[in-house]
Amino acid sequence: MRSIKIKSISSVAIVLLIVAAVPAIGFTQPSVDAGRGLVLDFGYWNIEWIEMAFTEGMDGDAVLDRACESKGYEVTRLADGSVYSVNGQVNLVGVKWAMYVLSGTGWARAEPKSVEAEKNRVITWARSSGEASLVPATDYSGFSYYGYAKDGMSAITGKKLSVVTLAPSVTETVASVKGIDHIIGTDLYSNYPKMISDKHASGDIAITGGYTDPNYEWIIKLAPDLVFCDGSVGQQVVMADKLRKSGVGCVVLYDATDVSAMFGNIWITASALGLSANANSTIRNLRSAIDTVSGIAGETGKRVFVSLSADPSPWTSGSHTFMSDIVSSAGGKNIFDSQSSSWFMVSKEQIYAKQPQVIIIIMDGRVNSNERYREIVDGLDPVWKETPAYRNGDVFLFTGPAGDILSRPGPRLAEAVELLSKVLNPEAFTEKDPLDAIPKYFSDDYQSYLIYQKEVFT
Questions:
Q1: Within this chain, do residues 237 and 317 fall inside the same structural domain, yes or no?
Q2: Which residues does residue 227 pair with via DSSP β-bridges, in sequence order?
Q3: Given Cys at both, which of 73, 239, 258, 311 links 68, Cβ 3.0 to 4.6 Å?
Q4: Domain that holds residue 88
């Protein structure tokens, strides 16, 4: 892990590292003069960040009015003074315009007339069902993620923002909001999009350490404006605290245990880069792809076992994991979804007792031939072979780059949902297009089986 000579690590190994990297520390108090402004949330991931000064005497209504005036938006109010519509976006049943202010690290609804705007840094006006449906109020560590940049330019230097990313999923999230040109350093294992690997090879992007052992000195030497960290990895949360004490801005993304959390990370990342508008288009494209394939696949309810190896007693995912969520999005049911542990080892007897109808194996290396596929499947433990999945030929291998999309909780989860949807209900897709058939194994060529995705990494 600690040698710079290492060129790659399996996605399976990275997932297992997360299990031992749960953060349990205190955080440095925010010292960055975070940007002031309004989050104008129309709902359904149509959000705007409007930077503005909150002057003395302004209340919540005045904030909304001034922000909308700057954008040319009309605000309509009811007789009682409550907001009915903004820019033509009206209240709906259970989804209404309201104002929210920061309370700790979350949002709290507030009466607009009672709010002294100058005492707040960020205010939200949202057409929503309540606090739980809003974008994250802060990053994972409780810091504001606004004010670092505007249109990709540093708020401090006025120059192009430079960033370091400390995890593959984080790197891909930055790239998905058109931030790839801002990256000057990554962890050792980031390799997507291809431009990242190319820039590693050319020396344009430096290596700043491993996944669970980022190197403080290497990061400081690069003098980045901003470092993006993975909040599911304790060592990265500690590193963010240390870097902030040295005057380096950091944004810690949340553990993306479901698709919604992943969308939240995309918004946080784009906003920190000063490119919040890019988050909307990225999220819309991902939602469209997920909704389309989920609609085609329907709810099969098939019992799915996801294994991180072909070992008789492997690691698997429990509840509250991105893996369980994408299986559900694809119309299936994770057989260990009732387990409170996120990732854990399971015995072959437990697997047999659940009688999975589909088995997904994420493996190191690459499987690129029918012969290699048969060799692996034929070599499975005899207990595994006493399941409907094996008897019916529904054992699927995700290897190499295909394994990455099931192991990294980032913007390629939409690709994972499409492939899993086709695994669980292949007939629904071939009925629409007879050529939309899939093999029993995926590797470098997995993208050739994706036809419902919209471009994200441009």
A1: no
A2: 164, 250
A3: 73
A4: 37-133
Distance CA 176, CA 291 (A): 19
Q: Do 91 and 85 form a contact (C-beta atoms < 8 A)? A: yes
Rounded CA separation 303/280 (Å): 34
Higher pLDDT, 336 or 35: 336
CATH of the domain at 68: 2.170.130.30
pLDDT at 31 (0 to 100): 38
Q: Give the 3-state secondary structure of residue 127.
A: strand
d(CA 13, CA 211): 10
- Structural domains counted in the chain: 3
Band of the pLDDT at 15, cuts 50, 70, 90?
Answer: low
Mean pLDDT, range 367-390, rounded to an integer: 97
Dist. CA 21–CA 65, nearest whole Å: 45
Rounded CA separation 213/85 (Å): 49
Tokens of 155: 């708020």
User: According to the model, what pLDDT value does residue 163 have?
Assistant: 98
Peptide bond into 193 cis (omega under 30): yes
DSSP label at 131?
Answer: G
> Do 299 and 438 fall into the same domain?
yes
177 in the same domain as 116: no
